[in-house]
Amino acid sequence: MAAGSRQHLRVSTLVALCVYAYVGCWALTFATGKKVLVTGAGGRTGKIVLEKLVNSGRYDVTALVRSEASKQKLLKGIEMMNPKKVVVGDIESKDTMANAFAGMAAVLIVTSAVPSLKVWSLVPFLVGKLFGKKWKMRFGWKGAKPEQVDWLGQKNQIDLAKENNVKHVVVVGTMTGTQKDSFLNSIGEGDGDQIVMWKRKAEIYLVDQCKDSDMKFTIIHAGGLSDEPCGVAPIAVGVDDALREIKPNKRIPRADVAEACVQALECDAAKDVSFDITSIDDGQALNKDGLGDLLATLDGASCDYTINPPA
User: Fold this and answer.
1) How far apart are CA 276 and CA 174, in angstroms?
2) Using CA atoms, how far apart are residues 245 and 242, in angstroms rounded to an integer?
3) CA angle, 22 as apex, 20 and 23 as ends, to 5°?
4) How far apart are the first and last CA of the chain?
């Protein structure tokens, strides 16, 4: 065999081995590790949670989205995501998503009703500001209302988690749950619109379901969200909205909330704890494996659901 041919054969063999190794490692990320389900994976925060889990290579990750369009968009955005691991289901219908929960060790619930500003309400709002009047902007919802999404939809997910012997449920909620006059509860036009109240009802249900089982919970109440990068902003944790009294109170990057969700899976201090998380000047950056250090500042405290209980 000519020298050139032998060299070409060696190069071809080397390339083939590299491709085989890459594909083998790529496939391995879907075949090993703790089985974790991310619901609401098509949302802005849910997608970041999913991306962090997939890119870590430590988990066998499944995503739940609400439509085929959301699935295709997600697959385009996360190249390493296995298409077979993206499930389309409706959280308002247990049967449509039941298969996604089978065999899961942990579930991260990042579903939420999404408010949509009614543009016409900007006019009276701006006029009111000119004359010192507090006229509110009005909102509708992109899809179902909070009662259906944040209460009944989350309840369905919690029930499926328990029925499938899931060991750990992580829920992303919002701050202001202790406040009767929370602005977020006032943006709609009826009882079904009170998003914080319905979220709080679902959180209490989760805590109750964990009491008589070995299922653990982690409830993360995020402050106002921003799109800044992870690991830079000064972050602090607290309970019962006490952090809202600290001024200035800044927005927390979605990526930091997502990082807290991911770290909670391996952090014993995060088990059976409900806490607030936001950005303040005296906080500290959320570094890798840093959630435990943040939670240590709580001295064992957890959010008190006897404060402002939902109707």
Assistant:
1) 8
2) 6
3) 65
4) 84
Give dist(CA 27, CA 310) in Å, integer: 45
Number of Cβ within 10 Å of residue 20's Cβ equals 10
Backbone φ, ψ for residue 235 (5° rounding): -110, 145
- Split at pLDDT 50, 70, 90, the class of 110 is very high
The residues, any chain, with a CB within 8 Å of residue 263's CB and separated by 6 or more, are 270, 286, 288, 289, 290, 291, 292
The predicted-structure confidence for 33-51, as pLDDT tens digits, reads as follows 899 999 999 999 999 999 9
Q: Could you count the other beta carbons within 10 Å of the beta carbon of residue 301?
A: 16
- What is the tens place of the pLDDT at every residue in 191-227? 678 999 999 999 999 999 999 899 999 999 999 999 9
pLDDT of residue 121 exceeding 70, the answer is no
CA 253 vs. chain centroid, Å, equals 12
Higher pLDDT, 3 or 303: 303
Per DSSP, the residues of 26-40 read HHHTTTSSEEEEEET
| 225-228 contact pairs (CB < 8 A, 24+) | 225/45, 225/251, 225/252, 225/253, 225/254, 225/257, 226/251, 226/252, 226/253, 226/254, 227/253, 227/254, 228/253, 228/255
Alpha-carbon span 304 to 307, nearest angstrom: 6
Determine the Cα–Cα distance for residues 138 and 124; give it in Å rounded to an integer: 10
Phi, psi of 187 (to 5 degrees): -80, -15
Structure confidence by residue, pLDDT tens digits, 259-272:
999 999 999 999 99
- Interaxial angle between packed helices 44-56 and 68-77, expressed in degrees from 0 to 180 and rounded to the nearest 10: 50
CA dihedral 249, 310, 113, 41 (to 10 degrees): 80
Provide the 10 A C-beta neighbour count for residue 190.
8
pLDDT per residue as tens digits for the range 225-255: 999 999 999 999 999 999 999 988 789 999 9
DSSP designation for 299: T
Q: Which two tokens stand for residue 75?
A: 């697959």
Give the global pTM.
Answer: 0.85
What's the CA gap between 206 and 217, in Å, rounded?
7
